[in-house]
Amino acid sequence: MNHLVGMCLNKYYIKDLLNMGYLLIKDVNTNKVRITENDYIYKLSYVHSNIRLMGISFVIKDITIQKTYDKYHIYVKGQSLRYIQDIDRLCKGVIPTYEPVLNTDESGSYLSFKICDKINSLLKDYRTRCELPLTIYKVNKFALKNIPILYILY
């Protein structure tokens, strides 16, 4: 089973994923996020000192996951909620017709993932999961909405 490596490097976590490594940002600072545009997408990157990370990869904690008939709702609270709100606010200010990743209902703010075999395998233990590694790498350009692509890392 893949899991976060027990060490923490100053601002980042190291994630071992099927013999590949991911550098996860421990404290997201939107001042370090860069957005570049091309014909079909907006790419997000995170610049810190001498390193440039493609996408914004981080761990959300203090989550509750609910399964509906066609989606998983991942309710986010605390610091993780602030990170996602900050990223949404930054993208909305730079990218026209940006569609936020956060949704809200009477239970709180949540991320939504459609149910499919891959998501089911990643979230099979959703009742007991309390953290989830994510990355936002790009925002797809469409005529009426620019939609961010959110990946679950595992």
What's the helix and strand layout?
Blueprint: E1 4-9, E2 12-17, E3 20-25, E4 33-37, E5 41-48, E6 51-54, E7 56-61, E8 63-67, E9 71-76, H1 78-94, E10 103-105, E11 108-114, H2 117-122, E12 131-141, E13 146-152
Antiparallel strand pairs: 1-2, 2-3, 4-5, 5-6, 5-12, 7-12, 8-9, 9-11, 10-11, 12-13
* Number of separate strands: 13
Proportion of helical residues: 10-25%
Taken together, the total number of domains comes to 1
The dominant shape is globular
Major sheet size, sense and barrel closure: 6 strands, antiparallel
Please provide the ordered H/E string of secondary-structure elements: EEEEEEEEEHEEHEE
Structural classification:
mainly beta
- Enumerate the spans where pLDDT stays under 50 for 5 or more consecutive residues: 1-20
Round the mean pLDDT to the nearest integer and report it: 81
Radius of gyration: 15 Å
Strand content: over 45%
**Quaternary state, please?**
single chain
* Structure annotation, total helices: 2
Amino- and carboxy-terminal Cα gap: 9 Å
